[in-house]
Amino acid sequence: GVLLLAWAAIALGSDHNHVYKAGDLVPLYANKVGPFRNPSETYRYYYLPFCSPGDIEEKKEALGEVLNGDRLVSAPYKLHFKQDVETKTVCKKKLTMKEGALFRYAISKSYTFEMYFDDLPIWGFVGKIEGEGKTVPSEFRYYLFNHLHFDILYHDDRVIEVNARVNSDAAMDITQDMEMEIEFTYSAKWNQTSTTFDKRMEKYSRTASLPHRLEIRWFSIMNSCAIALLLTGFLSSILMRVLRNDFIRYTHHDDELAEDRDESETGWKYIHSDVFRYPRFKSLLAAAIGSGTQLFTLMVFIFILSLVGVFYPYNRGALFTALILIYALTSGVAGYTSASFYRQLEGEFWIRNLLLTGGLFSGPLFIMFCYLNSVAIAYNSTAALPFGTIMLIFLIWALVTLPLLGLGGVAGKNSSREFQAPCRTSKNPRDIPDLAFYQGALPQMAMAGFLPFCAIYVELHYVFASVWGHSIYTISSILFIVFIILIIVTAFVTVSLTYFQLVAEDYHWWWRAFLYGGSTGAFIYVYCFYYYHSLSNMSGFMQASFFFGYMSAICYGFFLMLGMVGFRAALVFVRHIYRAIKCE
Question: Which residue ranges traverse the bilayer (predicted)?
Answer without folding.
Answer: 218-240, 284-312, 318-342, 354-379, 385-407, 435-458, 478-502, 514-532, 544-574
